[in-house]
């Protein structure tokens, strides 16, 4: 047992899917895995282990944002021996070519979080990258499932509500300058956990990948309903499971 996960060592698989939402973790476990056992409910942040195509896979909820997922990543990797970690979450589209419910894979993660500086002391702007093996397998899995995916750089943000991004907000000339610049530099989506995932994976030399479905678009202001956010993510889950078991 670790501080935030009630499992015994051995109850968590080496292959782990990481949704933020505990309810989504339960939905994934119940609908995609066989022989499911719940191993934790501390803070109602659920974790389950079952089998996908005969391979043990865990689904561990992480909560939202870099600090929360960092706690679960540390314990999964260093206490339970997780080796392949795939985040399955939602993101906001950053440009007009990214549509609601598109599947996005984070090849790289840029971040405004301080975690890179906390580790490297500001000496290095460490590149936060997906594991190439998982990335290429996920792209292949998506092709086999006939699901189009967009692969690119994402921005992992600490603030979901950021008045710097409000066109009528209090900053500068009223333009969304930072997001506009990120957009011009090819960043396709915004989310809140991938930087932690890629940094922890690099530190421990384990494999990690972040996959998302688009729940809203910062530019067009389109928005999925809460029901759609919770239940319309099957394509992404299938891609993640087909990838993580290889
Ligand atoms: N911002 C940050 N994280 C997100 C968003 C967003 O718009 N949508 C889903 N996750």
List keywords for this structure.
246 residues, five-stranded mixed β-barrel, 9 strands, binds hypoxanthine, alpha/beta
Content of β-strand = 25-35%
Helix content range of the residues, please?
25-40%
Poorly predicted sequence stretches spanning 5 or more consecutive residues:
169-174
Spatially, the strands of the biggest sheet line up as: 5-8-7-6-9
| Alpha-carbon Rg, integer | 17 Å
Tally of DSSP β-strands? 9
Structural class: alpha/beta
Shape: globular
Average pLDDT figure: 92
Main sheet summary: 5 strands, mixed, barrel
What is the tally of helical segments? 8
Q: How many angstroms separate the termini?
A: 28 Å
Bound molecules: hypoxanthine
What would you note in describing this structure?
The protein is of the alpha/beta class and 246 residues long. Helices cover 32% and strands 26% of the residues. It contains eight helices and nine strands. The protein has helices at residues 22-32, 66-78, 115-120, 132-144, 177-184, 194-204, 226-231, 234-244; strands spanning 15-18, 34-40, 47-52, 55-60, 84-93, 103-111, 149-156, 189-191, 207-217. The chain has a five-stranded mixed beta barrel with strand order 5-8-7-6-9. A hairpin with a 6-residue loop joins strand 2 and strand 3. The protein is globular and about 50 Å long. Mean pLDDT is 92; it is low at 169-174. Hypoxanthine binds next to strand 5, strand 8 and strand 9.
Concise account of the structure shown:
The chain is an alpha/beta fold. It has helices at 22-32, 66-78, 115-120, 132-144, 177-184, 194-204, 226-231, 234-244; strands spanning 15-18, 34-40, 47-52, 55-60, 84-93, 103-111, 149-156, 189-191, 207-217.
